[in-house]
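Async update (no meeting this week)

Hi team, since we skipped the sync, here's where things stand on the single-chain job. The sequence we agreed to prioritize is pasted below, unchanged from the tracker. I ran it this morning and attached the output directly underneath so nobody has to dig for it. Comments welcome in thread, and please keep replies under the output.
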Amino acid sequence: MKLQAVPERVPGILLILFLLALWEASVRFGWMVSPTWPPVSAVFTTFWHSLVDGTYFSVIGSSLRRLFIGYFIAVVLALALGLAMGVWRRFFLLLEPLVEFLRPIPSPAYLPMAILFLGIDDVMKVFMVAFAAFFPILLNTVAGVRSVDPVLLETGKTFGYGRWDIVTRILLPASASFVLTGMRISLAIALIVTVIAEMVAGNSGIGFYVLNAQRSFLVTEMYAGVVALALVGFALNKLFVFVEHLLLHWQKGVPDVVL
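Output:
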């Protein structure tokens, strides 16, 4: 974290601490009396115990495994098709109606069909993650490739670049910011769909853990699981921003990453 960025972070951190203190006070002073609203201190105590005894490493580990397999599949397919659609207009016209037909449908709507065809095991969950993460990467890749200055392509041809060299040395670097933006958006979507799939048809993972805690009326465990999930999402986003900064450090206008 850059030193000059620390003071700028203080108000946001204080706001979070204030809201947590307000949560704690609402229980301690009887402003909110409900078995479904435990004190935040109890939630964090439960969170710490589950972290120390390895519970979260087990449930989150299985979720991340499904997430990254599906996400990797989505990245590979979306990059390949996005490059093809961006380069060849006929290919774009062929696939664009299908993409625009499927893309607006919410990913959870495919869950019943995915369960029917793929069952409730990891294959279904990986498919759901890959399907949901596919479209943002695809659309951003197409937009990035089509925004490349034609002069760059002509210059590459002048220097004798073949098709593969043009793709790897011109198109991909020039559209990298678009592609990485789509990948960052898809990473968050992949986490959401992973949790939903585990809640609907799962027997492991952080989504199943939170839902099972709610069904068993283990209220503090439920809230602690949500806290763990929030931290996972936060860490994944920060990690991606860091990697993005490393990959795009050569581009003008890319701000220094703030961790």
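Quick observations from my side:
The domain at 36-247 is CATH 1.10.3720.10 (MetI-like fold).
The chain has eleven helices and no strands.
Reply here if anything looks off.
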